[in-house]
Amino acid sequence: MTTLRRSGIIAALAFGSVALTAPRAFASGCDLFTASATCTFNGANFYVTDPQPTGTGVIDSFLRVQQKGTEQGYNTGARPIQAGMDSKTDPNFTRNITTGEVPVVGNYRQFFLDINEEANTWGNLLTLDQLRIFVSDSPDLNNYDVNTGQLAGATEVYDMDTAVKDNWINLDYTLNGKGSGMGDMVVYIPDVGFSGHQYVYLYSQFGCVPDAKGKCGNGANAKYASGAGFEEWWVLSPQNHVPVPEPATFLLFGSGLVALRRRMRR
């Protein structure tokens, strides 16, 4: 056997060994536990948002999910809700949403999240474990595949995870006022692929299978279960839209979007 051939075989065996032993997936968590904390995954920017009224006339709710431990769901006007989903059935809070209803901020689309958990130790923390956004020209879609992460009849425009990386965000219910009616997080999704489609679908999954303290994993790999109220996704009503700079140029003073807070105070 020639030296060149022998070297080639050794290299091939070494590559095969690395391929078999290399990890197939990585994990990356990010904590929004302080008012100035931020997270960035796959081009999207996540911020803690100012406490603000979230009542009728101020926001447009389009998705509520609720379940203990883990919860998942996506917005749609279809009824009944797909089996296995934890979306609330009230059409005022889980519904179709058009592309035109989602504010464009610079080169991003803006979505808000309000979580409603327990105010006690451990129960105040919650993990946003999956976030996927789709567009379609069809309303009332009702066939999300939890195995593939795809919504039949829709095109994916954003996924917080990648093929090899599980990303998640930990949230603190007590940070912004301990109650429903307060915003908790705002996310800016790159405005790529939204135009030319009529409807937007947002799928999210919160929580984990918890231990006795509502926690899953340890240290940097800690995730937190859902334990109490509903989680709600919403956008600002058209009359409350505020022109804000792109996330790259945001001035976040302590608790978040100062321009938005000033507008809401008026």
Please render the helix and strand layout as text.
Elements: H1 3-21, E1 26-32, E2 38-41, E3 44-48, E4 59-65, E5 70-74, E6 97-98, E7 104-105, E8 108-114, E9 125-136, E10 144-145, E11 150-151, E12 155-159, E13 165-172, E14 185-190, E15 199-207, E16 215-216, E17 223-224, E18 231-236, H2 258-265
Parallel strand pairs: 1-13
Antiparallel strand pairs: 2-3, 3-14, 4-18, 5-15, 6-15, 7-8, 8-14, 8-18, 9-12, 9-13, 9-15, 10-11, 16-17
Structure description:
With 266 residues, the protein is mainly beta. The chain is globular, with a radius of gyration of 21 Å. It has helices at 3-21, 258-265; strands at 26-32, 38-41, 44-48, 59-65, 70-74, 97-98, 104-105, 108-114, 125-136, 144-145, 150-151, 155-159, 165-172, 185-190, 199-207, 215-216, 223-224, 231-236. The strands form four sheets. Strands 1, 5, 6, 9, 12, 13 and 15 form a seven-stranded mixed β-sheet that branches. Strands 2, 3, 4, 7, 8, 14 and 18 form a seven-stranded antiparallel β-sheet that branches. Strands 10-11 form a two-stranded antiparallel sheet. 10% of the residues lie in helices and 35% in strands. The protein has one domain. It has two helices and 18 strands. Strand 10 and strand 11 form a beta hairpin.
